Amino acid sequence: MNQGFFFKLRSRVGRLTSASGKSSRLTSFVAFLSSSFAARAVTIGCQTLQVPLVIRGVGAEGFGYWMTLTSISYMMNFADLGMGMGLQNKLASAFALNEDAQARRLFASTFGALAGIGLALAAILCGIAAAVDFSAFFHLREAAVRTDAGHAAMLSITLLCVGLPLGLGQRLAYSLQLGWWHNTSQAVASVITLAAVAAVSGLHASFMAYFVAGLLPTALVSAGLIYKLCDRLGWRSWARSHFEFRAVRPVLSLGAHFSVQQLLNTVLYAAPPVLISAALGAAAVTPYNLVQRLFNVFGVAQNGLMNGLWPIYSEAHAREDYAWIQRTLWRSCLGTLAISITPLAVGAMFARPIIRLWVGHGAPLPEHPLIWLLFAWNACQFLQQPFWFLLAGVSQIHRLTFLSIAASTVCAGAMLLMVRPFGANGVVAGLLIGYAPFLLCGTVLHVLAYFRTMRSPASQPEAPDGAGIASPVESSLQPTRTPLP
Question: Which of 112, 158, 167, 430 is the most interior residue, by most CB within 10 Å?
């Protein structure tokens, strides 16, 4: 009698624990998604207003050179060796288990390691940049742009190296399920940047002034985000007393696989403008960049959806809630079709009049083949993202390492072969040749393989005793918030 009563009681507690976990996932996801939409709307709006100011101030060539240097900086993101993404997963686990001291050591150690990498990288790259004639390399013709070309490159390198450790603010916020802090900081940086660019435009300043106004605010706001998060956690002395080099090893081990993904992103997103600029001149980057910036608007909802699911997939995987993971994946695929790909197609149909209304007559309009090639390229990325973020969230990213290397190699080779005979169209076609068969199809196949290997609790035979009970370990993996001062 008593055994039956206690069995029923424990079963009800287990069901309530499970329901609480799912409710917490939904609450966390909705909070992140809503804040992401608002912050990204502000960011896109500011960037949209910023483009015509820069084009009118420095011309199409100056804008193209700006985007080229930005792409070169983005190409070096893999210099952190994937430690930022690896740290995010490690911190999420530490916070879930209320291991604040371990989380502090991980963050301090990774920050110190990336600061050291940044210093070394700055010394090497600045030495190389001092010997390069950027005006000749990128076929610059405008006198104002040629004058500041070298100084702009040096500033870009400096901010890149400073940004390596400062980028950990995003990872810390995500691991605390406070991603809306990072979203808000990005929106604030965009507003400050727009105000700075507008001020420079009103003063009719030099190209270098536009460059400083466009890049410096982001670095300052990133530093402020780290300060506020550490202050909230009570980590006021973490940099001095919690650095341990050995703590970097697990982060580096996991980050190695993410580093391959960052290398792939370098080829896919940063290399095209650089190749176009080097082969055809900086001005040829402008039509490509304008179309891609327009299409980025349709990725706002997609990015908010996927980034919000990453930490929640990690929590569900730890609780072995595989049925929820499967349902969420297929729903996210349907959501991608509805909120990203369909609007993207509409945007492609009206891209030319939208861009003309946006920038006026200060820049050349893109041709239709380039628009539709970029549509296909962005649509492939949107389709692949739900599957990629699931693998990242459940720490199965190593499955894509070989495919990423193969895709990077094919994309780079195809772009190099096709840029001169076909221009920007050939570059985008080269991206599709490497991406679609390796990353899009390969990621889907790896997710299906993961589903076959995992054991869903729903498929298990019901245990004769203790069914539905949340184990102590499982209960400790509930999405929690670390007690904050």
Answer: 430
In this structure, is the dihedral angle defined by the CA atoms of residues 36, 39, 45 and 49, taken in order, positive or negative?
negative
In a 13 Å sphere around the CA of 35, the CA atoms on its Cβ side amount to 21
Q: In this structure, what DSSP letter does residue 142 have?
A: -
pLDDT for the residue 432: 94
User: Helix count (H) and strand count (E) of the chain?
Assistant: 20, 0
Q: Please, which residues have CB within 8 angstroms of residue 247's CB and are 6 or more apart in sequence?
A: 105, 106, 108, 109, 110
Under 8 Å between Cβ of 484 and 233: yes
Contacts of 76 (CB under 8 A, 6+ apart): 121, 125, 160, 266
The reported pLDDT for the residue numbered 334 is 92
**Rama region for 262: left / alpha / beta (φ>0; ψ in -120 to 50; rest):** alpha
Which amino acid belongs to residue 176?
L
216 DSSP assignment? H
| 177 contacts 481 by C-beta, under 8 angstroms | yes
Helix (H) or strand (E) holding 59: helix 2-75
User: How many CA atoms does the CB half-sphere of 125 hold within 13 Å?
Assistant: 22
C-alpha to C-alpha distance for 439 and 442, rounded to whole angstroms: 5
Residue 465: other Cβ atoms inside 10 A: 8
Distance between CA atoms of residues 180 and 248, nearest Å: 27
Q: Give dist(CA 331, CA 337) in Å, integer.
A: 10
Residue 413, CA distances (Å) to 267, 405, 437 in order: 10, 12, 15
Low-confidence residues of the chain, pLDDT below 50? 1-21, 456-485
> Other C-beta atoms within 10 Å of 41: how many?
13
Q: CB–CB of 440/384 below 8 Å? A: yes
Contact 29, 174 (CB under 8 A): no
Question: Angle between the 2-75 and 207-233 helix axes, to the nearest 10 degrees?
Answer: 160
CA distance 282 to 33: 37
Q: Are 155 and 215 in contact (CB under 8 A)?
A: yes
Q: What is the pTM of this model?
A: 0.63
Beta carbons of 394 and 320 less than 8 angstroms apart:
no
Tokens, residue 252: 């580096």
Residue 368 confidence (pLDDT) = 92
Token pair 């997963």 in the structure block, residue:
89
Q: Do the Cβ atoms of 273 and 285 come closer than 8 Å?
A: yes
